Amino acid sequence: MRDSRLDKLANVLVTYSVAVKKDDLVRISGSTVALPLIRAVYREVLRAGGHPVLRLVDDECTDIFFAEAGPKQLAFLNPLAMQEIETIDCTIGIWADANTKSMSRVDPARQAAASQARKPIMETFLKRAALKGKRKLRWTGTQFPCEAAAQDAERSLSQYEDFVFGAGLLDRKDPAAEWRKISERQQRLADYLNKTREIRFRTPAGTDLRVGVRGRRWINCDGHENFPDGEVFTGPIEDATEGTVVFSFPAVHGGREVHDIRLTFKAGKVVDAYASKGEDFLIQMLDQDKGARILGEIAIGTNYAITEYTKNTLFDEKIGGTFHAAVGSAYPETGGKNTSGLHWDMVCDLRSGGVIEADGKVISKNGRFTRTDWPR
């Protein structure tokens, strides 16, 4: 029996997040694990008058690729994938895994090589996403509640389903209307930050990070690009990040967990990197190209319906009362110029003594904003 909440989620993704229009070419991509949601999205795209294009991924084939591919195959840029990203009007990514740890023993150098091969695809994606008008690529991504993700979150599947749908406000009568209300609050915060020259983060655990953001645009993430959503972010000035950040939760990338990450920045670049587990992997990712040690994103989590870490960046970076930083590629719509084959989000908790300052003025203490008309 199909969970009716999947139909509700599919409707929000198609009609609100990417707002499919008649004759739009819509890519629907995801693992075969997520077929129940993929089918629901496919149905909604047809109902909206769009043309759905399926891109199914088999997790075992991904494992085979990293086990068997030679150097030329790892470095191969698929011309069909490039043409696709240049042609589609919308893309809806649905994330799910049969085994979230299947990449844990893949040589980091092989992962970096594959990442570099896809760099032109990422750059084209980001450029099109930053456009306005007819050529703009509308995109969103969401998590299908599956057994592997539930295990990572240390919950039963039923509990994890409730968590996923609750985080997206799908338990409300009109989720899209609720996200529009959230959008208004977040926009007020983004408007304030758009006038800020520098933002500073401090925590009792040792974080003291100053990030130059003058002239950069803060983006209001209100359920369009990610679902669920709940953050405001920008692309920092490339040479204006100073200080140290101690991340609170393990950071997951390419199927690997890296624990207790501490990064020190000087003139915008990571000059020292430490991790209690996975440090070699961390450093190899940071060394994959000249942009990987530059901060490509700084963001503040605003979704107070998400309160716990689940080893899933989609949710963890949105936790109300946190901030996250991503090394690597910037989103061009922010004014960020950094490019890289890497974009790796890492989360820092502010809820126990953390402070955010904007041009020296405290705007958040203990994970709560000082203004009542901002997200709460």
Report on this model:
With 376 residues, this protein is α+β, with helices and mostly antiparallel strands. The chain contains twelve helices and 20 strands. It has helices spanning 4-17, 35-47, 59-68, 71-74, 79-87, 108-117, 119-130, 147-152, 157-167, 175-193, 279-286, 313-316, and strands at residues 25-31, 51-57, 90-95, 138-143, 198-202, 208-212, 219-221, 226-227, 231-234, 241-246, 251-253, 256-258, 262-266, 269-274, 295-301, 322-328, 343-349, 355-358, 361-365, 368-369. It has an eight-stranded antiparallel beta sheet, covered by helices on one side. Helix 1 packs across helix 2 (35-47). The longest helix is centred in the middle third of the chain and has 19 residues, at 175-193.
Distance between the amino and carboxyl termini: 36 Å
Low-confidence stretches are none
What would the principal axes of the Cα set say about the shape? globular
- DSSP, total strands: 20
Q: Characterize the largest beta sheet: strand count, sense, and whether it forms a barrel.
A: 8 strands, antiparallel
Mean pLDDT: 94
C-alpha Rg (nearest Å): 20 Å
- Read across the widest sheet, the strand sequence of neighbours is 14-13-10-6-5-18-19-20
Number of contiguous helices:
12
Helix content, binned percent = 25-40%
Structural class: alpha+beta
Portion in strands: 25-35%
Structural domains: how many: 2
